[in-house]
Amino acid sequence: MNPNGIVWSVAIWLIPLIIAIVFHEVSHGLAARALGDRTAERLNRLSLNPLRHVDPIGTVVLPLMLAIAKAPVFGWARPVPVDTRHLRDPRRAMMLVALAGPAMNLALALVGAILLGLFAQSIETAAEGSVAAFVASNLVNFLLINVFLAVFNMIPLPPFDGGHVVAGLLPERLAQKWDGLARFGFPLLIVLLLVLPALLPQANIVQRLVAPPAQALTNLYLSLATAIGG
After folding, report:
1. Where is the protein localized (predicted)?
2. 124 occurs within a structural domain
3. Looking at the predicted structure, is the pLDDT value of residue 72 above 80?
4. Where is pLDDT greater, at 112 or 60?
5. What distance in Å separates the CA atoms of residue 94 and residue 158, rounded to the nearest whole number?
6. Does residue 1 fall inside a structural domain?
7. Distance CA 175, CA 30 (A)
8. CA–CA distance from 176 to each of 18, 155, 163, 169, 201 (Å)?
9. % of the chain residues with pLDDT over 70
10. Which of 16, 32, 58, 225 is the most buried if burial means most Cβ atoms within 10 Å?
11. What is the tally of structural domains in the chain?
12. What is the pLDDT of residues 174-205, one digit of tens each?
């Protein structure tokens, strides 16, 4: 496979992205089930089958466009449904459900770091365009994507997971108004990630808020991989 071709570029980003997103969403559903709500389970959204979680724009079109443009790749899946009426202590439970997704991504990044360390010698001697090089690229991107998703989803605004955490910390009346912003989630996402940075580069949320902690975590995971690889 040509490592400079579009197929290679798309594959090494899209495969780890789909895995990261699917596990992120399933972890929300598992946390909700543990706290009393089995809605996701009844709707078969605890499946690892990507087709049950794919959002055509967020999981396929946008990541493909970003990968082809060699821009940072991110995306989203269809949110796992949670019925707060079934949750024990709904406000506290929703915070835990929200935190489950980023926590899963950090755990997956740890797995990626360990695998990179274990296969370090094979990766170093891998020929360009080989299967080993393809696997290595996927592992590196798997680590990067999971760290990015964990930090990105903790942006303290609806509809991000961080927004649910903020709602759980606010007084109930304010929390209801805060949650109401979620219906503007997609337009808000476009404004924050595309429009605002284009108009005011200094207001680039990804570069100013997400990139620094994501880079620090990535360096930590890569240090672990180096230590394992000897």
Report:
1. Cell membrane
2. yes
3. no
4. 112
5. 13
6. no
7. 24
8. 32, 18, 12, 12, 32
9. 94
10. 32
11. 1
12. 988 888 887 777 777 777 777 777 788 777 87
Cα–Cα distances in Å, from 163 out to 157, 167, 175, 220?
4, 6, 10, 26
pLDDT digits (tens, 9 = 90+) for 128-139: 878 888 999 999
Higher per-residue confidence, 205 vs 23? 23
Q: What is the pLDDT of residues 32-43, one digit of tens each?
A: 999 999 999 999
State the first-to-last Cα distance of the chain, in angstroms, to the nearest integer. 30
Identity of residue 161: D
* Global pTM value: 0.89
Domain span holding position 31? 6-229
Side chain identity at 108, as an amino acid letter? L
Which residue, among 139, 121, 136, has the nearest Cα to 19 in the 3D structure?
A: 139
Three-state SS letters, the chain: CCCCCHHHHHHHHHHHHHHHHHHHHHHHHHHHHHCCCCHHHHCCCCCCCHHHCCCHHHHHHHHHHHHHCCCCCCCCCCCCCCCHHHCCCHHHHHHHHHHHHHHHHHHHHHHHHHHHHHCHHHHHCCCCCCHHHHHHHHHHHHHHHHHHHHHHCCCCCCCCHHHHHHHHHCCHHHHHHHHHHHHHHHHHHHHHHHHHHHHCHHHCHHHHHHHHHHHHHHHHHHHHHHHHHC
List, for residues 39-59, the tens digit of each pLDDT value: 999 999 999 998 888 888 777
Active site residues: 25
Extract the tokens encoding 128. 């360009």
Residue found by looking up tokens 């707060």 in the block: 84
